[in-house]
Amino acid sequence: MSSLEPDQRRAALLRALHDVVGAAQVRDDASTLERYARSTAARGTRPVALVTPGSEAEVVALVKLAAAHAIPLCPVSTGKNWGYGDACAVGDGQLVVELSRMNRILQVDAELAYAVIEPGVTQQQLSDYLREHGLPLWMDCTGAGPDTSLMGNILERGFGHSPYGNRLQHVSGMQIVLASGDVLHTGFGHYPQARTTHLFPYGVGPFLDGMFTQSNFGIVTRIGLWLMPQAACVNHFLCSVERHEQVGALVERLRPLRLDGTLRSIVHIGNDLRVISGGAVFPRALAEGQSCLPDALRAQLRARAGVGAWTVSGALYGSAAQVAAARAALRAALKGSGASARFLTERKLRLGALLGRMLGQSAAGQRLRAQVAVGQSLFAMNRGTPNGRFLAGAYWRRRAGLPAGFPHGADPARDNCGLLWVSPILPMRGADVLAVHALVEPLFRQHRFDLFVTFSMINERALGGVITVAYDKEDPDEVERARRCYRACFDALMQAGYLPYRVGNQSMADLDPDADVYWQTVAGIKAALDPAGLIAPGRYEPARAGAAVKDADSSGL
Amino acid sequence: MSSLEPDQRRAALLRALHDVVGAAQVRDDASTLERYARSTAARGTRPVALVTPGSEAEVVALVKLAAAHAIPLCPVSTGKNWGYGDACAVGDGQLVVELSRMNRILQVDAELAYAVIEPGVTQQQLSDYLREHGLPLWMDCTGAGPDTSLMGNILERGFGHSPYGNRLQHVSGMQIVLASGDVLHTGFGHYPQARTTHLFPYGVGPFLDGMFTQSNFGIVTRIGLWLMPQAACVNHFLCSVERHEQVGALVERLRPLRLDGTLRSIVHIGNDLRVISGGAVFPRALAEGQSCLPDALRAQLRARAGVGAWTVSGALYGSAAQVAAARAALRAALKGSGASARFLTERKLRLGALLGRMLGQSAAGQRLRAQVAVGQSLFAMNRGTPNGRFLAGAYWRRRAGLPAGFPHGADPARDNCGLLWVSPILPMRGADVLAVHALVEPLFRQHRFDLFVTFSMINERALGGVITVAYDKEDPDEVERARRCYRACFDALMQAGYLPYRVGNQSMADLDPDADVYWQTVAGIKAALDPAGLIAPGRYEPARAGAAVKDADSSGL
User: Is residue A271's pLDDT more than 60?
Assistant: First the structure.
């Protein structure tokens, strides 16, 4: 249809979209386009329109329509991939296919502990469902907030908080719309009589699920997600070291416990600012026009929050006896390290809440109530009840501060937060934590930003670093500094072999500097499954990541 | 080169092979061809020659040579895929590429607990290496015997005995020779500077590892394999139920413990014959010409072995306190079930061995010594020391009985054992165990074979069934009955939705009765990666599984 004029092409596309999903589910008004072009990065990309299909059959029809109209599709679940590109496509001019209306919880099996969900199912929704139905199951949840898609995070290979926090290992049986319009069922799912599609992920023959994560090979419309049986006992533990250098030894002491299965959940090791930013924004009034905290102020905030340079946060699950054994192992491991674990139990939290109320409006009462509130949020997260509180860091440099009602309905992209994440993977060793910190800390200082960093024990051998560049989007100079700071960190870490586990749209093109065999292979598979390159061109597809922009520019839409 | 005469083609191929690997590593003498055509199935397939490359570079050269000579390659690790096709290709006339000489242990990291190994590394070899170097690590091992390849089993998605028994979840970073001759490094391995290739499997971008298991997309030449830190305490547990029907309730009681992580290792639930066959073959003299045990004799053997209808076998790992907590949970779960867990500890085994020696040649002494020997083998397996003892079942119907020196050097294919495995996956529910048993038991009876069956808790939600057809290969009638029995079981289970986790060559063509989208997708990827179809044609490639035979027949080699 490329011989038609742009306006005609556009009109034909919209008519065709109306036929597929109904006019109400297609939007190309200025405000919608503006909304979907929003990004916590310096600039987002502009879609040609937004379409919100309500079923897999409509997704199939959209894929066929995309081929007929030569229009690239950008599938998103709920479009809340904040800090990694949000709802934006890699290039301008793509048709955003938001799957938020496909939000059915199709099945929950209490006995074998799994759910089958669609892309629009949010963390809050599944959590509510389990509670309302009185099911003895917990899901894993992330700190990304209640309204984010479970599937969207999993397909980006996000990680959570619980023993099921290595999320991809807890998926079994996907359903995927391919560019051809065919629907692929993975695992055993392609055998209609299968009984174990959601119980045994591998099926028979090549195991394909991994291919459809961080990829643009298809549009996933359904997954089986494993849930945890509720544990009789949960203890949250926190421990803190005073000085920065001590974090190395701390990691060395904790690693054996993660390796041997004593610590089965994702353990998070965050710096002071991760805690400080948990309920506060940058104190502009006190910072004398600077964009990062003066040392003295930082020390003051650290003291007020009662934390050291680094804080470890994790949870123990099991029977009372199992948790007691794990507590003993943890105590023994930390003995003599200068760090000691504090254990939060439900009982302690109830007592703390009571005491906090009794202390009234005194400073001590306020501090205790704040601590109890954090403890309660952590406890809730451990049990799969999501909480927006942990999004506060995204608002650090926002001039208007935290929005009214925060954390309810938090949305960093809508709220014009400046947020970029650099997410290197490192060996689970103290020396590597110190090395990564030493690499990025001077870059943050040079670009005048506060360094927020968490290292999470995402499996038994590796740490996932999440380094936040939080910046003021209303200050063009700061936007540019943020972009440079991100880029400097990304490059330095990449060069040093601390590669990212996940990247935002701005870095897709940089993933393949050497035109290597891996990316050639990925391109070969893409060509086989989607020869016209219509599904999310450029997404984890370095060679096309630049070209997608050009194509869109020349499409005239 | 197809215009040449067969003899000329063959001669040219052999010359080219000599150039690549040297004459000593190419064999096409009658005895070699005979050896590599051996199978525990009714009949194997005949290779055109055997080549044993010594390096990845030679594998690359072989792949290019295969393209030039249009000769299909059948890569095998050590060629001991007994009961599933052994070293045989799916079709005749393929060039068997055995990677047994590529047996380097390239790296072992004691701190982060992993090894990097080549395809030829055997279970015994890695186990010895860890012991000899005094490394505080255990590998997961299978019952397939000391001389089998670790990688070969993992690429077929075999499972083991320990907390690392879900083997594919413990692989990170593969190296793969593609049909193009390119070498693909998965995970982060394609970035030369990567530090976490063997610590974080996913890398960035589509996660491809699963694609290269149960597939013919490439020749894997290297993997990173995670090892367990040695546990301070291991207890093996055994429990048994008297009557068949009780196994359902037993599974129901154990499932919650597997689901909640109390039982972290693979738990095996075997029927009486699994235990009885552990050190004995079919008692022909007592069975009055029958090919399966008369009921009275079976009852007698069961009593002599001191087992009930079903026996559960598993292990607990951890600190003394953690193991004690798990023991308590296991005891509580079994209370009132009629089954009670017996725990084997190292101390008990030492005492038993002492007592066994003291009892001398008495019947009690012999029985105790036999029990201690089994216990020691189980303990060794839990700690990654392989043992051929568990191969005894393959010899059940062999006329000559167990070979001299058994289990040392056991090799069911060489020893002309008749052995076929049917391996359905079922939900981890008592009802499904009883249903699968009720499906296959009458088929075994009808075909006059003893039913050997194990259900293994291969993950938290599914059981992997291993059903053995052990038959006398010297009796043509029994060979035919075995083939029919296998086929009847395979079909019945497939139809009932209990799909196989793995199949032998004889069933590759039957995996895709409906020409479904999954297998079309697999074929599309194969066409992209190996357009000439030269790597293992027919292997987990149903459409080509029949054609491979025809191609080979018409190649004239």
Answer: yes
- Using CA atoms, how far residue B539 sits from B40, B150, B171, in Å, is 18, 19, 22
Of the candidates B184, B324, B502, the beta carbon closest to that of A517 is on: B184
Give the fold, CATH level 3, of B233-343+391-502.
Vanillyl-alcohol Oxidase; Chain A, domain 3 (3.40.462)
Considering only CB atoms, B195 lies closest to which of A178, A226, A497, namely: A497
For the domain A1-99+506-557, what is the CATH code?
A: 3.30.43.10
Shortest Cα distance, chain A CAs vs residue B174, angstroms: 11
Beta strands in A472-533 (DSSP E): none
Residues 465-524 of A with CB under 8 A from B: 494-503, 511, 516-522, 524
In tens, the pLDDT along B216-265 reads 999 999 999 999 999 999 999 999 999 999 999 999 999 999 999 999 99
B65 neighbors B523 (Cβ within 8 angstroms): no
Q: CB–CB of A26/A51 below 8 Å? A: yes
Comparing B387 with B109, which gets the higher pLDDT?
A: B109
pTM of the model: 0.96
Do A498 and B525 make contact, defined as CB atoms within 8 angstroms? no
Position B553 scores a pLDDT of 47
> What tokens were used for A65?
């329509």
Domain boundaries of chain B, sorted by first residue: 1-99+505-557, 105-229, 233-343+391-502, 345-382
Cα–Cα nearest to A491, from A439, A538, A455: A439
Closest residue by Cα to residue A540 from A525, A556, A555: A525
Helix (H, G, I), strand (E, B) or coil at A317: strand
Q: In whole angstroms, how far apart are CA B291 and each of B270, B281, B475? A: 21, 12, 11
| Range B164-184 average pLDDT | 97
Among candidates A121, A135, A126, A122, which has minimal Cα distance to A229? Answer: A135
Q: Minimal Cα distance from B511: which residue of A? A: A204
Query: Around Cβ A332, how many Cβ atoms within 10 Å?
Result: 12
DSSP run (H or E) holding A355: helix A346-358
Say which of A264, A328, A427 has its CB closest to residue B195.
Answer: A427
**Which of A203, A204, A462 lies nearest to residue B199, judging by beta carbons?**
A462
Can you tell me the ipTM of this complex?
0.96
Give the fold, CATH level 3, of A233-344+387-502.
Answer: Vanillyl-alcohol Oxidase; Chain A, domain 3 (3.40.462)
A203 vs B499: CB contact, 8 Å cut-off? yes
Give the gap in angstroms from C-alpha B218 to the nearest C-alpha of chain A: 12
Give me the helices (H) in A383-425, please: none
What pLDDT digit, counting tens, does each position of B114-147 carry? Answer: 999 999 999 999 999 999 999 999 999 998 889 9
Give every CB contact of residue A154 below 8 A, 6+ residues apart in sequence: A167, A168, A171, A213, A223, A225
Of A385-394, A431-440, B484-493, least confident by mean pLDDT is A385-394
Q: Which CATH architecture has domain B105-229?
A: 2-Layer Sandwich (3.30)
pLDDT digits (tens, 9 = 90+) for A233-250: 999 999 999 999 999 999
Contact B326/A at CB under 8 A: yes
pLDDT(B471) > 90: yes
**CATH topology for the B1-99+505-557 domain:** 3.30.43
Question: What percent of chain B is predicted at pLDDT more than 70?
Answer: 97
pLDDT of residue A555: 45
* Alpha carbon distances (Å) from A187 to A121, A180, A220, B468: 22, 20, 14, 24
Residues 6+ apart with CB under 8 A from B135: B108, B110, B129
| CA torsion angle A51 A55 A61 A67 (round to 10) | 50
**Beta-bridge mates of residue A241:** A310
| pLDDT for residue B56 | 98
Indicate the residue type of B549: V
